[in-house]
Structure formats: structure tokens, C-alpha cells
Specification:
This protein is α+β, with helices and mostly antiparallel strands. Helices cover 38% and strands 22% of the residues. The structure holds zinc ion.
């Protein structure tokens, strides 16, 4: 928008004779030329004698832009004329919130003349409006269209920019030395593997060599005839054995044709680094595939070997551009199923089709390219020597972010670097620090120990705890702890150390386990670990249940197993009572309607009595004692809502001891299910009969059954 020029245009103003009664705002339009461009202007005036010269708002549109000027505030707004909820979202709502005034827009905002209306329709040609009488909708719709186009344009411009950058990168990308890559793969990844396919017949064998492609019929066992004596022998072909091709001399593996499928493919991946522009480097990720094949033909004599070959090809999958001061850019090789063409794109595929770059071999050319680039101190070469295959792109990306990686590699902390390269930054304490001890969050004097263990991350964790908790442990203690921590799960020793020294803790674990640290035997290690788990778990429960662990009887029980089990029981009891409380609050109606329900469901004879549950808590307890699922929210909810009820059947002389739990349908009094402990049905025939009779009684057959009904309260 040409804001300044528009502001300079005088207001249209409203003749004072045009005032209409009961109208709040009068609107006037004009189409004018501002700086050589056609502009549509709509001015909104307060319908007051004093406000005829300066509008409240001036809405301006061209075919491409729009904006609204508020003279009073001297402000421009980019909002639409009316928003979706035009009460307060749009320009109109800003002037006069619709929920405050009666009659909506048509009563409050009136056009000055019919010409204004015509002008609006003319300017907003091609805009579809549902209700043509609403002049403001034309303006809204027109603005919406402008906005759409602008968004589309932005998208297009962005994707054009990306495409240009992609093309520019592709142009600056050095050529891929394809032959050299295949040669490297053959030498270093496939190790010149060749097959000599064979098929024996008597003392001869048909052979086909994948290295030279030749087929021959050779004798491997000497014959009796004179001629056969003259013929040279080959070694006896045996499947899977190594030998030499008698034709070309290549080292081969014998392969019995017809034994298995005679086509084999292998895929390997390789990274190649090349210089890019000034000090940059491009890392290319290439997939090399090799195929070995025996060509056969079947005729009436059976399978006939025709020839053999091996073939290799490569495909560049991704390339990462590293340039000083720039974000890493990774381009991916994709295939379009629509056009059938391959192309490069600057983003990965989403979802399952995601291209994954894995750890792979690195071509030696990479090291020379690195030396000339801004990443020369990345220590990538040293890391590869120590760690084997690497994911070069990830490594370098992390190195750019975390240059301390160079130091870590040079200090042989390979395990730590491996974790960092897998985005596991949680293992270091201060990523910003250049001091190794601060970076790792350990005591300075421990660095040597960690270096000797190649940056073992279990050890790192222990050393971090030592520093964090302000302790100073002996090397022997640390070693013992490392032995413990190598178990399946990290141990939480922090809590135990509040009450005892590290030495005491280790001694007790040894004593309870009945074996010593440092045996190197995996069974002993496991035993120590298990014991430590039990002991720490025990201490944890003791503390949680509110015992004072400074008391040595609690801290150091004679029988760990027994003490642990005791705590488990005690904690369960706590949990049940907690659950009882919760359910009482959540399902209060069970308790509230107990009396009422009791009148309906109470029944007893000489042996048994049955009644509804008194409360949610009682149902929870019943479920716990009988080990069935009645205490779950499903049944509590039903009972609480009056869908079905939980009844308790007990021996009359043991009214507080759970026996059988029954669920009855509230509507038709049908027994839905009944169970004793562990979901079993005790005394089944008898109880079934009894419960059936009870059901009959519930359904109204009360007189026939001569049972005494207790007078209820
Ligand atoms: Zn050969």
C-alpha cells in the first residue's frame, strides 16, 4: 500500500443535509487514481453534525492489496472488513461491536447514495456474495480473495526460492567419481567375492565363473583311460569351499548350482566427502549394490549352465552440504512415480518413506577433503578409527554444534561421542563449557579414569553422581558401583546414601548377596545386582511408609528377603485404603442409598445372609480380599448410577467375612454374575440353587418361599 500517498488524499466528506435518523454511520465510496493506480475508497462517518468532515475509518483497496486507516488514531490496520465472527474481529466490529447494537450492519451502517452501492458492486466484480443486499459482504469477499492470492503468491515465491537454491547447489556439486566408488566398494566392501558355480557329473564337473563369465567342462578326478590321464585336473568342487577359477585364476567360492537360488545381491553404503566451494565440504551418501548371477537354461537333460556374471551399480541417496556459518543442508534423491523421473529435493520424505542415513564406511578421499575444509578439526578420522563405521553427516552436524566432540575423541571417550551423535545430549551436564570436567559434570581428577574406560557411559553416570552429591569415592568403590550399574536398569542409590556411606552400602550388598564384587562371573554380577535392587527397594518402601531410616534396625534388617516382603504387604494395605477413600468420594451414592437398597435386597435364611454393599470402599475391600475385579471402577460406576448393584452374600454367623459377591440388574432383578474368591464359584451346586431361589424371591415370588424377611429400618 502507498500509505503516505493515500493519507495525503483529502477526505470525501459528507454533506450535512444527508443525515438519516436512527443511523449510526454513513458510508461513502469513491474510485480514484493514486500514483497511477486505481484505488477503491470507502469512508465511514459518524452520523453527527460535527463528524461530517473526518471519517472514523477509511477503507482502501486495490486489486492486490487492502488496508484501513483510522484518522483519529493515525493508524493503519490490515484487518479484513468483516471477520468470520465480525462482532469484534473485523474493521466494522472494531468501529461498532455488533453485539452491542441492535439491527446489525444494515441498520447501523448505511450507504450515502445508490451510486455508492453501484460503485461497490462494480469494483468487486466477479466476487460471489450470498446475499446481494448486504453491500458490506462484497467488500469482505473481495478482501478475502486478495488475501488468498497473496498467500498463494507467497507459497510460490518460497518454493521458487528453494528450487533456485537447490539448483545452485547441484551446479556447484563436484562430479561423482562413479568408477572410483565401484572400485572402492569392490576392494573394501565386497572383497572381490566371486563364485564358481559347478555341477558334477561322474569325475567331471560343469563350471561357470562369475569373475570371468566362462563356462567349461573339467575333470576333477583322474580317469583310467590314457587320454584322461593327459587332461589336467581341477580341485574337487565342494560347496562353500574356497578355490581358484581354472580359467581366469580368480579366487572363488564354490557354489553348487541347483543347491540354492543362483542369484545373490548385496547392498552396501558408503560416505564420500568432497570439497565444496571455498571452505565447505559435501558429504555424499551412496548405496552400492552387487549382484552375482548364474545363467541357466533347462532342456531335456536338465539344467544347463550358460554363463555367469557379476554386476555392480550405485545410487547416490543423499548429500549434505556443510559451509562455514551456514546451516547444514541435506538434499535427498527422490523418485517421482508420476513422471517416472528421479530428482533432488531439499527435504526428506515423510512417514514410512523416510530416507534413513545409516552408519557406513567412509572413502579415504574424504580425509583429504576434510583437511582443506573448515571442519578440519572435527576428529572424524580418529573417531572412525576407534568406532568403526560412522554416520558421517550426523557426526559433523553434532561437531558443528558441539565442537568439544573433537576433544572427546582425542581423549578416547568414544562411547560418549557415540551417544552424543545419537542426539543423546542428556548425558553431558554443561554443553556450553569448554572445560572437559564441567562439560561432563565430573570431578577433574576422574577424567583419566573415564579415558581409560573409553568414555564408558555407565561410569560417566556414576562419576556425575559423585560430583553432584558432593562425594569423594575411592576408585575401588567406583569400580564396584560400575559393576552393579551394568545391570538391566539403573539403580537409584541416592536415597540409600542419605542414611549410609558408600562403603557401608557396598558391604551390605555383598553380605546380603553372599558373594563379592570383582569376580568377573556373570552369575555373581547378577546376584549382586538383584540384591542391590531388593535392598534399595526395601529402603525406599520403608521411607515411603514413614519409618525413620536412621534407626539401624530398619536400615539394616537381618533377613532382607523377609523384611522386603513385609514392606510390600504393608504398602499394599496403604494403597487399598487410599483407593477406598478415593472411590468413596467418587461414588458417594452407594453409601447414600444403602438403607433404601437394603430394604429391597436384604434376605437371609438359617445359613446365609445377603445384602447390598454399604459403600464404595466396602466394594473395593471385598474385591481385594476375594481377589476378583468387583472393586474396579466399572462396577462401582454401575452401582453408583443404579444400573446394577453389588450384593454381598455371607455366612450368617460370619457377617463380616466376604464369601460370594453378586451383581444384580437394577431394573429386572436378574442376577448378572456371582463369584467367590479368585473368580471361582465355591460350593457351586448348592450356591447356585440358593442364588436362583433368591432371584425368584426378588422377582416377586416372596410368599411362596417361606423365608423370613427381616423388618428393615
Ligand atoms: Zn574365472
Amino acid at each position: 500500500m502507498k500509505y503516505k500517498s493515500i493519507e495525503a488524499v483529502p477526505y470525501l466528506t459528507i454533506p450535512s443535509c444527508s443525515r438519516k435518523k436512527g443511523v449510526k454511520y454513513v458510508c461513502r465510496t469513491e474510485i480514484m487514481d493514486i500514483k497511477g493506480e486505481e484505488h477503491f475508497v470507502l469512508e465511514i462517518y459518524r452520523n453527527k453534525k460535527s463528524s461530517m468532515k473526518i471519517p472514523v475509518a477509511r477503507v482502501v483497496m486495490t486489486q492486490k492489496e487492502y488496508g484501513t486507516y483510522f484518522p483519529e488514531q493515525e493508524l493503519w490496520s490490515g484487518k479484513q472488513f468483516t471477520g468470520n465472527t465480525w462482532d469484534d474481529e473485523g474493521i466494522l466490529g472494531k468501529i461498532e461491536p455488533m453485539y452491542r447494537s441492535r439491527g446489525g450492519v444494515e441498520k447501523n451502517f448505511v450507504l450515502l447514495t445508490q451510486e455508492d452501492r453501484d460503485r461497490i458492486e462494480k469494483y468487486c466484480q466477479g466476487v460471489y456474495v450470498w446475499r446481494k443486499e448486504n453491500w458490506w459482504e462484497f467488500i469482505s469477499e473481495k478482501q478475502r480473495k486478495i488475501k488468498d492470492q497473496e498467500n498463494r503468491g507467497r507459497w510460490r515465491r518460497r518454493s521458487e526460492r528453494r528450487q533456485r537454491a537447490l539448483d545452485e547447489r547441484a551446479k556447484a556439486t563436484p562430479e561423482l567419481p562413479e568408477q572410483r566408488i565401484l572400485q572402492y566398494a569392490e576392494d573394501s566392501l565386497f572383497h572381490h567375492k566371486h563364485y564358481l558355480y559347478y555341477k558334477k557329473h561322474g569325475s567331471r564337473a560343469k563350471i561357470a565363473c562369475s569373475a570371468c563369465g566362462n563356462v567349461a567342462d573339467k575333470r576333477w578326478k583322474a580317469g583310467i583311460s590314457y587320454e584322461s590321464q593327459l587332461e589336467s585336473l581341477i580341485e574337487e568342487p565342494r560347496h562353500g569351499y574356497y578355490g581358484k577359477c581354472p580359467i581366469c585364476g580368480a579366487d572363488v567360492i564354490f557354489f553348487a548350482a541347483g543347491k540354492a537360488k543362483t542369484m545373490e545381491t548385496q547392498k552396501k553404503y558408503v560416505f564420500l566427502g568432497q570439497r565444496y566451494k571455498e571452505a565447505g565440504i559435501i558429504i555424499r551418501y551412496i548405496d552400492v549394490q552387487k549382484e552375482w548371477q548364474l545363467e541357466t537354461l533347462v532342456d531335456d537333460t536338465g539344467m544347463v549352465m550358460q554363463g555367469a556374471y557379476e554386476r555392480m551399480d550405485g545410487l547416490e541417496i543423499a548429500r549434505a552440504y556443510f559451509e562455514p556459518g551456514k546451516k547444514v543442508q541435506i538434499d535427498y534423491h527422490k523418485h517421482s512415480y508420476c513422471s517416472g523421473k528421479d530428482f533432488w529435493d531439499d527435504c526428506n520424505l515423510s512417514g514410512n518413506a523416510n530416507i534413513i542415513i545409516r552408519e557406513a564406511a567412509v572413502m579415504p578421499e574424504t580425509w583429504d577433503a576434510m583437511k582443506e575444509s573448515f571442519l578440519k578439526y572435527s576428529a572424524l578420522e580418529e573417531f572412525r578409527k576407534a568406532a568403526g563405521d560412522v554416520q558421517v553427516i550426523d557426526y559433523l552436524e553434532h561437531y558443528v554444534q558441539t565442537p568439544q566432540i573433537e576433544m572427546l575423541v582425542k581423549m578416547h571417550m568414544i562411547q560418549i561421542v557415540k551417544r552424543l551423535v545419537r542426539y543423546n545430549y542428556g548425558i553431558v551436564v554443561d554443553v556450553e563449557s569448554n572445560r572437559m570436567d564441567q562439560f561432563l559434570g565430573i570431578r577433574k581428577e576422574r577424567i583419566k579414569m573415564l579415558m581409560n574406560e573409553l568414555g564408558d557411559t555407565t561410569l560417566l553416570d556414576i562419576l556425575q553422581k559423585e560430583k553432584r552429591w558432593g562425594k569423594l569415592w575411592t576408585e575401588e568403590q567406583i569400580r564396584k558401583l560400575t559393576e552393579l550399574e551394568s545391570g538391566e536398569r539403573r539403580l537409584d542409590i541416592g536415597q540409600a546414601l542419605k542414611y549410609m556411606t558408600m562403603q557401608k552400602l557396598l558391604n551390605r550388598i555383598e553380605k546380603y548377596a553372599g558373594c563379592k564384587f570383582g569376580s568377573g562371573c556373570s552369575r555373581v554380577v547378577h546376584q549382586l545386582y538383584q540384591t542391590a535392587m531388593t535392598y534399595l527397594d526395601y529402603l525406599n518402601m520403608r521411607e515411603e511408609l514413614g519409618y525413620d531410616l536412621h534407626n539401624s534396625v530398619y536400615q539394616y534388617p537381618r533377613d532382607l528377603e523377609a523384611a522386603h516382603n513385609k514392606m510390600v504387604l504393608e504398602r499394599n494395605r496403604e494403597q487399598i485404603s487410599k483407593r477406598q477413600q478415593e472411590t468413596e468420594e467418587k461414588y458417594p451414592l452407594i453409601r447414600k442409598y444403602y438403607r433404601k437398597l437394603r430394604k429391597r435386597y436384604y434376605y437371609e435364611d438359617n445359613t446365609y445372609a445377603i445384602r447390598p454393599a454399604r459403600s464404595a470402599g466396602e466394594i473395593v475391600k471385598e474385591g481385594q480380599l476375594l481377589h476378583h475385579c468387583v472393586g474396579g471402577n466399572y462396577y462401582l460406576e454401575k452401582h453408583n448410577k443404579g444400573v446394577s448393584y453389588i450384593l454381598m452374600l455371607r455366612f450368617r454367623d460370619k457377617p463380616e467375612e466376604p464369601y460370594i459377591t453378586i451383581e444384580v440388574d437394577a431394573e429386572n432383578n436378574k442376577i448378572l454374575q456371582w463369584y467367590g474368591s479368585y473368580d471361582k464359584k465355591p460350593d457351586e451346586d448348592n450356591m447356585k440353587r440358593w442364588i436362583n431361589r433368591y432371584e425368584q424371591w426378588l422377582k416377586g415370588d416372596r410368599v411362596e418361599e417361606k423365608i423370613r424377611i427381616l423388618a428393615t429400618a
